[in-house]
Amino acid sequence: MRGGVENNPFSRGEIENARSGWRVVYSAAGEPVEVESIAIAPGTVVTVANLFGNWPVRRGFLAQGKQVRLIELMIQQIALCHPQVNWQLRQGNTTCLHIIPGLTAQQILPQFVRGIRLNDLQYLNVNLPSIPTSKAADSLVKTQLVLSQTNQSYQFPIPHSPFPIPNPPFPIPHSQSLELVMGLPDRCHRRRPDWVKVAVNRRVVRSPELEQTILSAFARTCPRDRYPVCFVHLQISPSAIDWNRHPAKVEIYLHDPSFWQDRVTEVIAKALELNEDVLPQPPIPDRVGQLLKASEQKGTYLVDSSTSQNDSDREAKQHKIGLMELRAIAQVHNTYIVAEHTSGMWLVEQHIAHERILYEQLCNDWQLKSLEKPVILSQLSALQIENLSRLGLEVESFGEQLWAARKVPELLVDRDDCAEALFELSKVADLEAAQVATACRSAIRNGTTLSIVEMQNLLNEWQQTRNPRTCPHGRPIYFALEESTLARIFRRNWVIGKSHGI
Fold it and tell me: Where is the MutL C-terminal dimerisation domain (predicted)?
């Protein structure tokens, strides 16, 4: 799509269709004034120019820069729903926006969201039943990681055209689907929730219920005061939508919101896992990228074409990782676990990996244990005593400015610093924050020596958590270095003869 302001005597819309080979120009009143046959390359080009030429008040409503930004945002949202289309926005002779087509929205989003790379995103497409039923949870039987290669083509009717074209109805999917593009929380997040987007049937809309569901699904995965990048696209029956929520039809009601909220939560949870179905290629950090650039400047080498990004079969094989394929081999500085798998090596920080395990255990089962000998606390305010009572801890007066805690979280029972941990818990007002603090206090400390068996057990438990990518504070737990990246650093694939000076 090409947009801009030109010195035309009327508002103009041009539609050029490859199949029929014609061109139509409309007047400001919407009447066709020129209809002619033309030769054109395959594809459809729509040009809109001087759109508000006869409405000076509308033209002056917004500053030019703000108008352009709003137009860019509108095109970006349309492009996410129609990734197969090439989009261009021009202001005068300057190209403001150019979006290259792709197979999925995953390939579109990094083109206009600053700081996000393709490998920072996870893509899932899940088929759902046509009608919500009690068995809908079983519908997530197969996660489709690649869209069909067949692209749908659309034709637009031209009023009073001597070259009529059949206009099939808008395709309504036989089965409903949910498409997800999300930024992995250990790689990208934003200061505002401005890229938490929902689309329905190829149109971005506002759905406060689904947007809040997305934010809740990412709870305790991003750092504090940071928000995820997430695009959810629903292909559903039009009868399941109520458009009468907003005069401009930008906000919708869903007739069964709880069904769709559950489906969105399930798909996001699936995308956050580490398993053989969901494992995107890790990004190359800046420092590693500098090493690669230095290596490439010093010699000529060939990378095996099987590692090319276009070879999806090889890529899928390289990035599969099963539970037993992540093998602990060493410990660095008594802090990082070195793990090997079929496509490279990982560094896992032991403390925050264990913290993630304990946090999810506490979320599932907040166990308190009675003590024969109470823990004595001092210098507690009335608010702190109230917070401890709210968490289920029994605290009673034990003298002047002294209190006895007779129930504590089970993880803290055998710790020497139990009193200090309870004092920290007295400062938090909700259970979730208490669970985070307890998990952090109880996790393996960095500097602790672990045996190979202990490291392997930790890795196995960590892989099975709901969100193994970040700790409850939003810090990344692991760093992946692929074998192909190592090969480039060490220039292993040299051209025959070049490495021997021939």
Answer: 328-450
Question: In angstroms, rounded to a whole number, what is the distance separating the alpha carbons of residues 378 and 366?
Answer: 25
Q: What torsion do the CA atoms of 88, 90, 95, 97 make, to the nearest 10 degrees?
A: -50
- pTM over 0.85? The answer is no
d(CA 273, CA 459): 14
Among residues 278, 225, 209, 241, the alpha carbon closest in space to that of 467 is found at 278
SS3 12: strand
Please tell me the number of Cα atoms within 13 Å of 295 on its side-chain side.
19
For residue 46, pLDDT over 50 is answered with: yes
- Give CA angle at 171 (167, 172), nearest 5°: 140
What is the token pair recorded at 24?
A: 């139509």
First to last CA, the chain: 52
Provide the H-helix boundaries in 227-306. Answer: 257-272, 286-298
Task: List C-alpha distances in Å: 292 to 236, 284, 340, 412.
Answer: 46, 10, 21, 47
Kindly report which listed range (165-179, 312-326, 482-496) carries the lowest average pLDDT score.
312-326
For the record, the structure tokens of 248 come out as 């401009």
Query: Does the pLDDT value for residue 371 go beyond 60?
Result: yes
Query: In this structure, what DSSP letter does residue 463 have?
Result: H
Which domains does the chain carry? 105-130+173-272 (3.30.230.10), 324-493 (3.30.1540.20)
Instruction: Evaluate whether 284 touches 486 at the Cβ level (below 8 Å).
Output: no
Mean pLDDT across 56-66: 70
pLDDT at 200: 96
Mean pLDDT on 70-96: 92
